[in-house]
Amino acid sequence: MNPVLVEVLRGSAVESRHAGALAIIDASGAVHTALGDIDRPIFPRSAVKLLQALPLVASGAAETFALTDAELALACASHSGEPEHVATAAGVLAKLGLDANALECGTQWPSREPVLRAMAARGDVATPLHNNCSGKHSGFVCVACLMARNAGADPAEFARGYVAAEHPVMREVTAALSATTGTDAERAPRGIDGCSIPTFALPLRSLALAFARCGTGHGLSTENARAARRLRQAAAAAPFMVGGTDRFDTRVMQAFGERLFCKIGAEGVYCAALPELGLGVALKIDDGAARAAEAAMAAVAQTLLKTEDKVLRGYSHLQLRNWRGTEVGMLRPGEALSAI
Asked: Which InterPro entries has this protein been placed in (predicted)?
């Protein structure tokens, strides 16, 4: 059974406990920390968008289409659908001579409530550009357009169906996952992600290894090492694009820059690279609670970076308030997490 990573207090009593597993690995595969079962395959979901974006840079597509820091950061994002995110994704597609119809991620309303309310008040309709994965998918379309150019094919026609596992773009994405994690993703349990691309169940050990490699370049091909470095730099330069207003990933990367790349995934997953320490982190909260995953990631970052940073502590010891603003409890690291 996995240990309790995060506790929820109401008053001074524990109201809920969130169990999970944590792997902290270096680029050689050596274990720094292992809590719980780090070899059980889990679906990392959006936590691996950095890995999925590697072909965008490694293929030369990012350079060919002159993508900016903001556009590259958005390729790694689970954004809130704010106007800046929508405009940036649309800008990428415009460089390709395409529009939102090229995206196959599906339509999603913005997750940031003020933006959603403003759209509803204006009578606006959501599009695939508002989807939290529109940046990643715009990147996929960039890769498809470069492939089409090299093959003398029509870009829009070549890109069609890029979400399918057998499409050349998705085969490159799957190959990047295999190369970074040291696994054969093709043989891993497979599902379909919320944005319609394949998602593979991989062990936390392998995911942490991938992020250690992406933070250091060790164990990667020259092209993938260069791509990982470029994407991390872009996220540090434009952290708003990775999440949005008041989002964990954005706030933490605003505070730490290139010292920490972190990315949340659905169902309580977090992955991170800490380049100066040569470490990668992967964790999974068993019950899928996102706030518990953020609390656990914040606690790990505090420990590894040896910091009492207020942003991180605000998540690792999140104060809970009721609708009147009265403080009623808090989140805190569990005993196992506090001992690392």
From this structure: Asparaginase_II
Distances (CA, A) of 52 to 58, 224, 231, 283, 304: 11, 11, 11, 18, 26
Domains of the chain with CATH codes:
4-338 (3.40.710)
Find residue 319's DSSP bridge partners: 330
Q: How many residues does the chain have?
A: 340
| Mean pLDDT for all residues in the chain | 98
Q: How far apart are CA 134 and CA 318, in angstroms?
A: 30
Q: What is the pTM of this model?
A: 0.97
Token code pair at residue 202: 């991989």
* Tens digit of each residue's pLDDT (9 = 90 or more) over 93-125: 999 999 999 999 999 999 999 999 999 999 999
Backbone angles phi, psi at 219, to 5 degrees: 85, 0
Q: Which residues pair with 321 in a beta bridge?
A: 327
Q: Rounded to whole angstroms, what are the CA distances from 281 to 17, 165, 206, 234, 271? A: 21, 27, 10, 20, 5
Q: H or E segment at 200?
A: strand 198-200
